């Protein structure tokens, strides 16, 4: 089956056409995980150690709390895919760097799981509309907090980003200082 995907690029004011002829097992979910990895790593790169505790007040989560929360959502999704059960206990809060490392490690594990286990279409839809979309929303919050903390993230046409299905490591040479 031949599929043509059309994307409008706001940054370059053009239409991007992508042709796809085959879809491998869980490819869209796996590409979503790669997209999460790219956007997450872009949102936390070049941050200083104090960024994790930056607090907007009024009950808003700090970046460390957001990363802890998205780790919990991703871990719960992984365990549900594996065992059919949700994990209800909250994970321990770690330092900014350890939270980032733990989340990135969990992305690796979910990618591996999705590459090995066939997921039914309806369950795939639930993963996409639930935890995976929620995680992307929270990554947007991290980016916004970074801007408010005086370190805006460079704009980018994400439809042209070097995101590759199966890849969960981006910006390897840029570590938090």
List keywords for this structure.
two-stranded antiparallel sheet, mainly alpha, Four Helix Bundle (Hemerythrin (Met), subunit A), globular, 177 residues, 4 helices, 50% helix
Structural commentary:
- With 177 residues, the protein is mainly α.
- The chain has one domain (25-160): Four Helix Bundle (Hemerythrin (Met), subunit A), CATH 1.20.120.450.
- The protein is built from 4 helices and 2 strands, in the order ββαααα.
- The protein has helices at residues 27-44, 63-83, 96-116, 121-148; strands at residues 3-9, 14-20.
- A two-stranded antiparallel ribbon has the order 1-2.
- A hairpin with a 4-residue loop joins strand 1 (3-9) and strand 2 (14-20).
- Helix 1 (27-44) packs antiparallel against helix 3 (96-116).
- The termini are far apart.
- The mean pLDDT is 87.
Furnish the topology, listing elements before pairings.
Elements (H helix, E strand, L loop, with lengths): L2 E7 L4 E7 L6 H18 L18 H21 L12 H21 L4 H28 L29
Antiparallel strand pairs: 1-2
Structural class: mainly alpha
Please tally the helical runs, counting DSSP H or I stretches of 4 or more residues: 4
Shape: globular
CATH topology, which one?
Four Helix Bundle (Hemerythrin (Met), subunit A)
Which CATH C-level class is it? Mainly Alpha
Task: Tell me the series of helices and strands, N- to C-terminal.
Answer: EEHHHH
Largest beta sheet, briefly? Answer: 2 strands, antiparallel
Q: What is the overall pLDDT average?
A: 87
Enumerate the strands of the largest sheet in spatial order, edge to edge or round the barrel: 1-2
Query: End-to-end distance, in Å?
Result: 48 Å
Number of domains: 1
Number of strands: 2
Percent strand equals 5-15%
At the fourth level of CATH, the homologous superfamily is: dinb family like domain
CATH architecture classification: Up-down Bundle
Radius of gyration: 17 Å
The stretches of 5 or more residues where confidence is low (pLDDT under 50) are none
- The proportion of residues forming helix, as a percent range, comes to 40-55%
